[in-house]
Amino acid sequence: MVSQSSSVGYTIMGKTADLTVDQKMTIDTLHKEGKTQKVIAKEAGCSKSSVSKHINREAKGRKICGRKKCTRNRENRTLERIVKQNPFKNVGEIHKEWTAAGVSASRTTTHRRMQDMGFSCRIPCVKPLLNNRQRQKCLAWAKDKKDWTAAEWSKVMFSD
Predict the structure, then answer these.
(1) Is 90 exceeded by the pLDDT of residue 58?
(2) Of 17, 21, 114, 115, which is the most exposed, with the fewest CB atoms less than 10 Å away?
(3) pLDDT digits 0-9 by tens, 19-30
(4) Residue 147 has pLDDT above 90, yes or no
(5) CA of 43: how far to CAs of 13, 30, 37, 48, 70, in Å?
(6) Nearest-angstrom CA–CA distance, 87 and 108
(7) CB-based contacts of 18, cutoff 8 Å, min separation 6
(8) 112 with 70: CB under 8 angstroms?
(9) Which segment of 50-59, 124-133, 138-147, 148-157 scores lowest on mean pLDDT?
(10) Distance between CA atoms of residues 97 and 113, nearest Å
(11) Which residues, in sequence order, are bridge partners of residue 15?
(12) What are the Transposase IS30-like HTH domain coordinates in residue numbering (predicted)?
């Protein structure tokens, strides 16, 4: 997508460039006032065809373009259930389980659907657990500092 820096509409390889937010607001306002498309085009600083397309698109809604999705809502819900059961699986394992459930989709599609649902595929960092000696030391430190005042705590510098 090419960003538009000036307020003048222009053509890129046979297609009209997208209108800026200001131009769209101007077109909508002037259209509601009953101005002609020629007047609106001059005020907004774009072509009459851009004004016409914007007005017609707003009236009937924008046509959905692109390839249709290969999975249906039911299959997507199945994937969501699989991910929620064990969120720490990687994409490959989830994909195997999803295809075993009867869905015919690629690993990339599986990853894309998970991202669409708001799931991220990250494996958590493995951290060692505290051993008994470390637990004893933590408990002793906490008991030692249990009765400290705010003045004593103000002298402590906390860091990670």
Answers:
(1) no
(2) 21
(3) 888 888 899 899
(4) yes
(5) 25, 9, 10, 11, 44
(6) 18
(7) 1, 4
(8) no
(9) 50-59
(10) 14
(11) 12
(12) 19-57
Separation CA 27–CA 39 (nearest Å): 10
Phi/psi of residue 15, nearest 5 degrees: -115, 145
Which residues lie below 8 Å from residue 91, measured CB to CB, with a gap of 6+?
Answer: 107, 110, 111, 114, 121
Please spell the DSSP secondary structure of the chain, one letter per residue: -----SSS--EETTEEPPPPHHHHHHHHHHHHTT--HHHHHHHHTS-HHHHHHHHHHHHH-PPP-SPPPSS-HHHHHHHHHHHHH-TTS-HHHHHHHHHHTT----HHHHHHHHHHHT----PPPP-PPP-HHHHHHHHHHHHHTTT--HHHHHT-----
> Which amino acid is present at 127?
K
Residue 132: per-residue pLDDT: 94
Q: Which residues contact 10 (CB under 8 A, 6 or more apart)?
A: 4, 17
| Dihedral sign of CA atoms 96, 97, 102, 105 in order | negative
Residues 6+ apart with CB under 8 A from 8: 45, 46
